[in-house]
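User: Please predict structures.

Assistant: First:
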Amino acid sequence: MKLLGVCWKLLRATAHAVVGFLTIKLLFPRLSQAHREARVQVWAGELLRIVGIELVVNGTPPAAGPVLLVANHISWLDIVVMHASRHCRFVSKSDVKSWPFVSTLADGAGTLYLERESRRDAHRVVAQMAERLRAGDILAVFPEGTTGDGITLMPFHANLIQAAIEASVPVQPVALKFVDPATGATSLAPSYVGDETLIGSIWRTLTAPGLRAVVTFGVAQGAEGQTRRLWAQALREDIERLRRV
């Protein structure tokens, strides 16, 4: 029975992804940017419901841009969870562009791409981010650079935070965590770190008896003369505090 339940969730999630793919291909060209963003947010929330994840949002998501969201990174689910909380444009590794099907979903959500091993490309992306922020966008980054274990925060890389300094826009810290609704304890089911496989993470997520995604928005803040490194450290401390709320 458990296997049947997982297969049913997986089938429905796959069908939902196909609907999203077709919506981007066929409908998005005729929609305004605001309507596209609304569609992405609704789609993400429905996907969480299909796979049995309850979403809890604390704090106040930004009503509008420009603002840079800075969040801790735990799982492949983080982007879906944040889109369901508040649509934003993510900065992602360039590998995603070569992933069939997934790249279309990422493009439809407005993703910006970064060659992580290239310092020159980092400068290009910072300039592109600053341009989009000046245009009023809500952008989001994971300054840890990779997924963590959901318990301990890794050091924050400050490079992409430079975009907020160059555009003179605020940064809003966002804390993510997955918990067992019955106990409130941190759940490791969605983790995708180290030697863990994506298949294993998906299996644990779909078979978890209950799962709650908690998104806590902090207060947007300006640089106030800080360097990007000092600001990154202050934001890391803010997110550490928000995770304990």
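Second:
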Amino acid sequence: MGKLRDSVDARALRFALGFPVMLAAGFVVCAFLIRADLPEPLAIRWAEDGATDFAPFGAVVGVGATLIVLIGWAALVQAAPLSRPAVMRRIMMGAGLSISLFVTTVLAAVLVGQLGLADARESRVDVAVLAMGSGAAVGLGFVMGFVFKADERWSTDDDRAMEAALQRELDPDLAQDAVSLWVHARSSVFVMLGIASVLPAALLTIAVPWLAAVLVVLGLLAAAFLVARVRVDRSGLRVFAAGFLRVMDVPAAAIEAATPKDVKAADYGGWGYRSTGGTTALLVSSGPAVVVDRSDGRKLAVSGGSAASADHVAQVLSRVADRARHGGGTPAP
């Protein structure tokens, strides 16, 4: 029970469960108040010539009330979990209120359209009730979305942020030992890939659609491997192809040296991710790069963007590697 209280907004959950029930109860009470003026059975579906399907009063009211409750619960409960962003919770609260009121409006329009009739075949859905109720449902939903105050409670994300802040406070050099860098090929390379894949695919779409899709996918994969994210911290070096696929993970203690160099991609097997012999490389273009010598004799090369950023990455790598070799103490001068 304690975990449930910590994971949901109790007030929002009470409203999400109670409002549809109260709305359904109000619908049932109003339906019974006008019961004497309604035909039996009631029309529930219409075509161009009039009503085509009918159901008893009790079934219409019972199923309608059940729909109000179930649809309202399904939408409004989405605003209760505290793990979701506050903006999303506000949107779901407003949308849930609008949906609940709209369902009730449709049911009310069905009943009002049959008032005073002896035969439900002559009935129609009351458009005035439907229009006014729908407008009110949308308006009240917007108001609820703005006035609903999503509870902001301490979460695991706050714990991680607090821990990171404490580490920075206790170790002022921590921020200097971390760098994150995105590198990518020149824009002209991506334009060439688009021309080489999209244009032929457009020509092949009519004749061989699956081959056109294959060409587009291959072009996207080639473009993705010409983008990389480089992260350096005290744990070591990590390189992610396309920004999320980890292709290099080198512990700081395993780094012997890091040197900024101006390299040619052809010397390392070409652009993209390459692993030949004792060398692993992810180069998005020829030019500034960081060459890392590992203590086991292997060598890595990764694009560094500009000469300044490559030099900065190499300096941070050298510093964290030296710190790791000295057991996390002060780096050697």
